[in-house]
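Q: A reviewer asked whether we had any structural model of the full assembly, not just the individual parts. We don't, so I'm hoping you can provide one. Inputs are below.
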Amino acid sequence: MTRLRLRASNSVDGHYKILSISNKMFWLIRIFTILFIAGLPHLTIAHDFSVGDINIEHPWTRATPAGAKVAGGYVTIENFGSKPDRLLSATMEASKQVELHEMSLTDGVMRMRGLPNGIPLPAGGRIELQPGGFHIMFLDLQRPLKQGEKVGGTLVFERAGVVQIEFQIDAIGSQGSASGDHQH
Ligand SMILES: [Cu+2]
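A: Here is a predicted structure for the entire assembly that you could use as a starting point for your response.
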């Protein structure tokens, strides 16, 4: 009875308007659900690159606010070879200057130092560049990095040579899978 009265008190137009909105919402939700599920592999399965015996897993950095000049880059690198290698340097399209750095906690103070000799990569070994530890340092950003975009770059290895990669831009404040912070 209540429903009948409600319908009777609404104009036919009003009733259909409500229906059509909820139909649109229904389709929007369906489309977003499909897009979300379709997008999941990209979110959960890292993007990988390789060169020779070296596998490069999920290079990423953070979105930056307008005017920011520096950012840290992170990646996991595995050496499947029987000989040691070394990450010598890196480049990134949006930064004129890029260095390899290490953050470490010394006497309760986080310190950062440049690694002009690169980062050693033992045979069969794995190094993780992550917030609070080894990282790639973008020192002269030419533009803000936007969440969701991918920015090209390279990693240069002593043995394996140069490999083209893409840095995925995650949210401002993202910590990746690691804990600790990287303040600049
Ligand atoms: Cu740094």
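A: Points you may want to mention in the reply: Helices lie at 2-9, 12-44. The chain has two domains: 2-44, 48-170.
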